[in-house]
Amino acid sequence: VRLVESGGDLVQAGGSLRLSCTMSENSYRINTIGWHRQAPGKQRELVAGFRRDGTSEYADSVKGRFTVSRDDAKKSVYLQMNSLKPDDTAVYYCNVDLTTDWGERYSYWGQGTQVTVSS
């Protein structure tokens, strides 16, 4: 399974961006799917995503500003980011955790897309 992200860019504080992630296939059962980010010198962290039961979750730092959505027919997950802050600057990664028909569990990552927010 390949994940291809797009939408990263340089934006001023207060601006908006929409990230997209498309999977090469989604014939397996998705456990979790969402977005993580990693800023320089920091650990990778969950930003927003969907749990196995389909409910969404968000990091406290982005609640009220970011919205995660998915379109299973298009094999895609999106991250709408509003009111961006310089602290949101990071490489954003799409991640999917899935289970195959034969019961094996895998986690896949995209290549990352850079989001830079200038003050």
Strand content: over 45%
Task: Give the rounded overall mean pLDDT.
Answer: 96
Tally of separate helices: 0
User: How helix-rich are the residues, as a percent range?
Assistant: under 10%
Span from first to last CA? 37 Å
Sheet with most strands? 7 strands, mixed
What Rg, in angstroms, do the CA atoms define? 14 Å
What is the structural class?
A: mainly beta
Poorly predicted runs:
none
Can you tell me the overall shape? Answer: elongated
Extended strand count: 11
**Helix-strand string:** EEEEEEEEEEE
Overview of this structure, please?
The chain has strands at residues 3-6, 10-12, 17-23, 29-38, 45-50, 56-58, 66-71, 76-81, 90-99, 105-109, 113-118. It is an all-beta fold and 119 residues long. The strands form two sheets. Strands 2, 4, 5, 6, 9, 10 and 11 form a seven-stranded mixed beta sheet that branches. Strands 1-3-8-7 form a four-stranded antiparallel beta sheet, with no helix packed on it. Strand 5 and strand 6 form a beta hairpin.
Key traits:
single chain; 119 residues; mainly beta; seven-stranded mixed β-sheet; four-stranded antiparallel β-sheet; 0% helix
